[in-house]
Please model this.
Amino acid sequence: MAAKTKRSWREKLADSKDFPKVANIDCTKTKRWGEGTFVIPAPLEVDALMKTVRRGKLTTIDAIRKVLAKKHGTTIACPMTTGIFAWIAAHAADEAEHEGRSRVTPYWRTLKAGGELRFASDNGDYAGEALLTILANGAFAWTAERAKDWQERPSDCPETRYERKALSAGAKPAYLSFRRL
Model:
C-alpha cells in the first residue's frame, strides 16, 4: 500500500469541498445557535475576508462570521468551520512566506474573541505610545500583572527582529500583551 502524500496548507485552502453550503439549524444546534439557517463557508472565502483587513486594523472571527452570514443570507456562519478555515489560511500564508512570497494573507490581524495581541518593541517611547493607544481603543485589556511581564519575552513567543535589534544595541526590549475583550 502506497503512503498517502501530505497536502500543503495552500492545497487545503484551495480545496472547497463543495462549500459554501447553507442549511437549516436543526434541533441539535438550536440551543447554542438559535433558530434559522447557517452557512459553512468555503476556505477561500474566509481567506479573502482576512486579506481585506488593512494595516493597523484588526478583526475577529466573529466579525468575519457576521459578514459571511450576511453574504449568504443566513442567520449565522458556522463558528467551528470559520475558525478552522482561518487557521488553514494562516498556515497557508506562513507556508507561502517561507517560500519567499512577500504578499500573504495578514493572518496576524485576525483574532478570536479573547485572543491575544502581542507587541514587542526596541524603543521604549514607542512601546509607551503603543500601550496608551491600544488601551484607548477599548477593545483590549493589558495582561501585565508585574514588571517582569513586559520586561521578559513570554516563553511561548518566538524572538522578534525588534528584540534582536534592541539587544544588539544594548537596550532592553519591551513586550506588551493584550487580551481581546
